[in-house]
Each structure stands twice: as structure tokens, then as C-alpha cells.
Amino acid sequence: MSKLLTVAPSPHNYGKETIKTLMYGVIIALIPTLAVSIYFFGIGALIVTATAIVSAMLFEYLITKFLLKKEPTLSDGSAIITGMLLAFNVPSNLPVWIIIIGALVAIGIGKMTFGGLGNNPFNPALVGRVFLLVSFPVPMTSWPTPITARMQYLDAVTGATPLGILKEGVKNGEKVSALMDQIPSHMQLFIGNMGGSLGEVAGAALVLGLIYMLYKKVITWHIPGSILGTIVIFTGILWLINPDKYADPLFHLLTGGVLLGAIFMATDYVSSPMSVRGQLLFGVGIGVLTVVIRIAGAYPEGVSFAILIMNAFVPLINMYIKPKRFGEVIKNG
Amino acid sequence: MLKTFAKGGVHPPENKLSAGQIIEQLSIPKTVTIPISQHIGAPATIIVNKNDQVKTGQVIAKSSGFVSANIHSSVSGKVTKIDAIPDSSGYRKQSIVIQVEGDEWDEKIDKSTQVKRDFNLSSEEIIQKIGEAGIVGLGGATFPSQVKLSVPKGMKAELLIINGVECEPYLTSDHRLMLEKGEEMLVGTKILMKALQVEKAIVGIENNKKDAIEHLTKLAKNFDGIAIQGLKVKYPQGGEKQLIKALTKREVPSGGLPISVGTVVHNVGTAYAVYEAVQKNKPLFERVVTVTGKSVSKPSNFIVRIGTSVNELIEAAGGLPDDTGKIISGGPMMGKALSNADVPVTKGTSGILIIPEGESRRGKIMDCIRCSKCVGVCPMGLEPFLLMSVTERSMYDRTEKERVMDCIECGSCSYTCPSFRPLLDYIRLGKAEVGKIIRSRKA
Questions:
Q1: Looking at CB atoms within 10 Å, which of A79, B125, B409, B421 has the fewest?
Q2: What residues form DSSP beta bridges with A158?
Q3: Which residues does chain A have within 8 Å of residue B333's beta carbon, measured at their own beta carbons?
């Protein structure tokens, strides 16, 4: 035979999934949320998202090319996701220069200092978001009102978020039922008609993204399921104990970025546990911490911090929470 | 209701191109090359000399220990060479080359095609006959069958499982055998049941072979104690431990054998070979081999004499396509890539798969993104990414602790990895190194 054959160990066929297809799966799942944001927050949402994506990609390119001197990894799509998620976690009237700083922190510190995709312990977009939140607390917590502020960017009319109203009101001794009159109905919250970060308001669109990612097997249900379940159970118990002081579980699910966090932020491959049991524990931890921060902490939302704290526990979880091994039960039992 | 195993698994494209092709007898070649090590265990001892005349079915190398197997001539003719010749592994193995003259069978073999159902032999007599016929596991593992039938003291077999799963993509030899030799295969199953002294047997078949399930379900009505069970299509269901789990919900303990949960598993091909050995006195010197591939002009199922060159099988299936990149002995998930097609078909050759150039190479290896897909698909509940990284760092004590020896090398992890990481390659290295450590500890 003249031609040489390829020889390699098995397996000899491979699945169709690549890093690229998975990352673009996430991007497609984010598009409905982006559309809803643009509908409610208009040009502000557009400017913020475009700035975040472009600057995240630019920093990824510059750092891989000139600092790490590796082959640029721009085409895998992960920088686009970081940019989109960073944008979704900030208000739509945030000045461009702040967004650029956020993208630099997210990509530069959150991701590249650890060696790029696959090595970062924390979700890069959240690192960027939290950095901005503690550095620029005022612009990061002034929320443009939906629909009315559509055609405005920096000068948008701002108002409080539902969780902000609740936290402030309860602190002043008002009853939850009375406060609910100032807050849009649950249905409006589900559609996204409320103040907030531009990606967190769109409940329905986020759920649509979840369904798409589950269908495409980009992620499994374990992390979002355990986060949402824990929050429902925890806030449900509090609500049953004292409905005057604590809001109902559905309200908690629909506000303050719970859906965005549970569906898109906590499910980040790199910074979440490897085993199913570990993922469930991770989700429960995020759920509990979120509620604790909301009830007892200084911030009304809490999801970002809960995810970052649990990110820090991931190596420990991976070390001690192992998948159920085949043939283990019978041997021990 | 269809059953399946609980944990992990993947769904590679089935590509059963030759499923509709009737098994054809491949013409006897001019020479055959018969290695004396076609099974797990000690190589057989050669008992013929150069220039000896041999008959088809005559023993030419004798089993040399408890775990070993007889080797028979697959043709009649003259021994022209006894030498070390490369086999499908690429290594040189001691082999017997026979130049074919006619096709004269050993007189003891019953050449009639009529199905013979009745047998009146004791368990020991059956096991002895199976041993004499040189039967090994024909699913690919090639473990000598008589060893599997000798139940260790203190253990008891309750159930015989016949593996008709054929979960490897492309391969159809077991499928065709069930359709064309179903009754013989079920008689073989009865013989195996007698040998093990069990009352019950289940034939597990994946649901992509509905015709085989129907056909055997009909036939099984005339065989007491044999049930046919359909299974969901999922790789690696044909793995012994996965099949036992699917059919009985029992898990073979780590490091244990199927008999420790009261089961013994044999392949449908083995059951057919047992029928031929016990009822027709015909030793194992030919087997069904699928020759297939997307670019192959005539995907086929052949009954082939052991020792026939793979080249002749490819010629009979329409010749080697121009764009061939890889030739695999076995299926795409667990088969071996051949460096050369001039190697003999052995007892463990279930198929020859030809892969075009474009599909024969892996994608570029990227960093692990910790997507945990390898953990999700591992049917043994292992963490392939971790086994790879600790092996890479030569941390073999950790590799052992993470239970690398449980790996069945099904390849689901490498198949599913979006970064094309060589997971199984490193796990094999880890297994080899940990195996050495375990052996040195015992010594």
C-alpha cells in the first residue's frame, strides 16, 4: 500500500460538540433577553451591550496576543458571553468609560490572570460587575425606569428596583402587602417591566434561554434547578411565617437577577463543580446565601455575591463531592 | 418495556450500513496466517511442524494453561511457515501459515445444516467440549469461554445473560447472526444454561434491531427459561457491567466479576459457536465479520475463516476506497486502528471499518473548560478530566484512589469532549502505571 494510514487509539469517532458550538449555544440563548432589554430600556441597553461586547473582545485579543503571547482565542465566543453578561448585570445608563473598566477587570483580572478560558475560579463577568459595584456605587445603583427612558441614555429618568423598594420599606416598618402596591404585578415582573440591570428584568426571556440550553444540552438542570428550588423553599418558609415582613417566593424569583444568575451566571462551566452532586450542593449554597443577603445583608439583591462566594468553594466541592461510582453501593453495603 | 443502564452513556450515530446484508460465505483464501495467541491468557502451544498436512478443524496449537484456548486450522493444506508475524495489534506474534489445498474437513465434524435441538450431556461434558473447540468470547474480549463457565467454589450462577446489544456503531455481525441463525443461537443458549446449571437466561438486544427482537421473541416461545429483552439504544450498553445493570439492576462491585452478582454474560456469537461445537462437533475456525464504512461500495457481512487477510475482506466488499484514512479492526468506539491491512482475521475480529481521510483525525486539542460532560457520560461514575490531569502529573497514587482501574475504556469521555482532549489515552496510561504499582505491591 502506497499511502500511510492514520493510526490512533480508540475512540475513532467524535461528537459534534466543540467549545465553539457550546459557547454560541449560550449566546443564542441570551438573545431573547437582549431583545427584551432593548424593548424596555431602548438605546441605553444597546449602547451598554455593544460597548461591553466590543471591549471584552478587544481586551481578550490584546492580552492573549501581547501579554500571554498565545494564539488569540477570540473565535471560541467566550469573550462575547462575558461581555454580554457584564452588560446584562449593569444599569442601562452606565457611562461607556465605566463599562470599559468593567470589561478590563472581567477579562484581564477575572479571566486572563488565571490563564484564560478554563482556568478562572470566578465567573469573569461577575468579577467585573462586583468591581464596578464597589467602585462606582452610585452609577451602578441608579436604575432607569423601563419604557419611559427608552430614547435616553445618560440622562435617563431613574427609579428604584422592586427589591430596593421592599428592602427600604420593610426597614421603615411598612407591611409587605402595602409595599406591593408600589411594585408592578408579578405578571409585569415576569415580562420585565421593572427597573433593574438591563438583563435581569426579562424573566420570560431568561426562562426561554434556559429551555433552549437544556434542549441543546449546553447545560443540565442541576444548577439552575437547585438554586431556584432553594430560593423558593427558603423564602416560602419565611413568607408563611410572617407575610407582613417577607415577600412571597415568586416575587423573589422574578426580581434582583435571580433568574439571570441561576440560568446564565452560576452555570458558567469553568467556575461551577464537576459532579452532579457537587452541582446540587453549589446551587443550594447559592440559594441560601442569596436569601440570607437579601434578608440580613446591606444589598437588596445578593445573587452576584452568593455566586462568587460559592465559586470560591468549588475546588473544595470538587475535592470531596465525588460522583456516585459504579459498583460502590454493593461493595460498601 | 425497554430497559437501560442508569448512569452516563452517549449516542453516537448508529451508521448500521450493513444491517440488511445477508451473511455471505467468503471464498477460502490461498493462504491463511493463524496466530497462536487470539485470546486473553497464555498463547497456545504449537503441535504441528513445517510441511505437515492439516485438515480443516484440526487442532494445530493446544491450550497451554487454565486461561488459554485451543487453536484449530481453518483450512486444509500444508503448513509452510511457523514464524512471528505482525497481527492486528502491530506486534509480531507467533503464527502458523498454511497453504490451502482443497477443503477437507476433520471427519468428526457434522457438516449438515439441519438444526439439532436435543443434547444429552452433563455440565462437565459441555464445558470440556467448549474448551476443546477453542471457543473464546466473540464480542471482542476473547476471554476463553470454558473459564467463564467454570463457576468458582462458593459462588453460584443464577442467570445467564446473552449479549445481543451490539452497541458499537457500524457493526452488524451479531444482528445478522440473530436473524439468520436465531434458532441455533437459542439452542446454544440452552447448552450454556445447562453448563452453568441455571434455569433462566435473558437475551438483551438494543431497540435499533427490532427485527431481531421480534424474530427471537417468536422463536424463544419454544425454549423454556429464555426471555428476550429489548433495550434502549445507548452506548456502551454492550459493556458487561452495563448490560447486567440494565437487565437486573445489580451492580458488579468494583474489581469484581459478574459471577459475584450471580450472572454470567456471553455474546450471541459465542452462543452460536457453542451450538456448533456441541451439536456439530465443529471447532471455532470461522466467524462473522462486518466489513463497512461510509465510503465502502458494498458494506457486507461475511463468514470468514480465521487467518484470512483483512485485505481479502476489503476486496470482497468492493475494494479499498481511494480516500481511506484509517482502517479499524472492530467498531469506531473501541476498535483498533490498523497500520496495515495485511493482517489476519482472528477470533476477536467482529468488524473491519474503513474511515475516510476527512474523518480520521481528531480535532485540535484545546484547554479543558471544565464543562463536566466527561463526568456526565462516564458509565462507571468516574471523573475522566481528573484522571487525565493526575496521570499527566504522574500522581499515580491519586490516580489509583480515583479508581482508574474501574475504567472500561468505552471512550465515551473522549467522544463527548468539546475540547478534543485525549482523556482515554491518558487514562490508559494511568491504568498501565497503576497496574504496575499494584502488581509490585503484591510481589
A1: B125
A2: A144
A3: 10-13
* Interatomic CA distance for residues A99 and A93, integer angstroms: 10
Q: What's the sign of the alpha-carbon dihedral A9, A15, A16, A22?
A: negative
**Domain-wise residue ranges, chain B:** 123-280, 373-442
Cell reading at B144: 476463553
What is the rounded distance in angstroms from the CA atom of residue B34 to the CA atom of residue A285? 62
Residue B310 CA, distance from chain mean position: 17
Q: Is the pLDDT of residue A331 over 50?
A: no
- Shortest Cα–Cα distance, B325 to chain A (Å): 6
Do the Cβ atoms of A274 and B375 come within 8 Å? yes
Q: Are A55 and A83 in contact (CB under 8 A)?
A: yes
Query: Which stretches of B77-156 are DSSP H helices?
Result: 123-132, 145-149
Pairing of strands B159-164, B200-206: parallel
- B123-280, superfamily in CATH? NADH-ubiquinone oxidoreductase 51kDa subunit (3.40.50.11540)
ipTM, interface predicted TM-score of the complex: 0.89
Burial of B166 by CB count in 10 Å (0-12 exposed, 13-18 middle, 19+ buried)?
A: buried
Distance CA B407, CA B391 (A): 14
Nearest CA among A58, A256, A292 for reference residue A141: A256
Query: For residue B64, what is the DSSP state?
Result: -
Q: What is the pLDDT of residues B21-54, one digit of tens each?
A: 999 999 999 999 999 999 999 999 999 999 999 9
Neighbour count for residue B298 (Cβ, 10 Å)? 13
Amino acid at B213: I
CA torsion, points A106, A112, A113, A117, in degrees to nearest 10?
Answer: 110
Distance CA A147, CA A149 (A): 6
The string of pLDDT tens digits covering residues B86-101 is: 998 888 999 999 999 9
Q: Is the peptide bond before A11 cis (omega within 30 degrees of 0)?
A: yes
pLDDT at B136 over 90: yes
Q: Which residues contact B188 (CB under 8 A, 6 or more apart)?
A: B270, B271, B272, B273, B274, B275, B276, B278
pLDDT value at residue B140: 78
Cα–Cα nearest to A163, from A176, A152, A150, A144: A176
CA dist A38 and A52 (Å) reads 15
**Peptide bond preceding B236 in cis form (omega within 30 of 0):** yes
Q: DSSP letters of B227-246? A: EEEEE---BTTTSHHHHHHH
Question: Which residues does chain A have within 8 Å of residue B330's beta carbon, measured at their own beta carbons?
Answer: 10
Contacts of A272 (CB under 8 A, 6+ apart): A223, A266, A279, A282, A311, A314, B370, B372
Interface test with A, best of B357, B372, B415 (most A CBs within 10 A): B372
Question: For residue B357, with 0-12 CB atoms within 10 Å meaning exposed, 13-18 middle and 19 or more buried, which class applies?
Answer: middle
Contacts of A19 in chain B (CB under 8 A): 366, 369, 418-419
C-alpha cell at B64: 497451554
Interface test with B, best of A1, A5, A24, A267 (most B CBs within 10 A): A5
Closest CA to B276 of B55, B76, B110: B110
The answer to whether A231 touches A290, Cβ cutoff 8 Å, is yes
Residue pLDDT, tens place only, B379-396? 999 999 999 999 999 999
Q: What is the mean pLDDT of residues B395-405?
A: 94
Show Cβ contacts of residue A304 under 8 Å, excluding neighbours closer than 6 positions. Answer: A89, A126, A129, A130, A133, A257, A261, A265
Please give the Cα distance from A69 to A3 (Å, whole number): 37
CA distance B69 to B132: 8
Angle at B247 between CA B255 and CA B216, to 5 degrees: 130
Least CB-CB distance to A10: which of B90, B334, B386? Answer: B334
CB contact under 8 A, B333 and A117: no
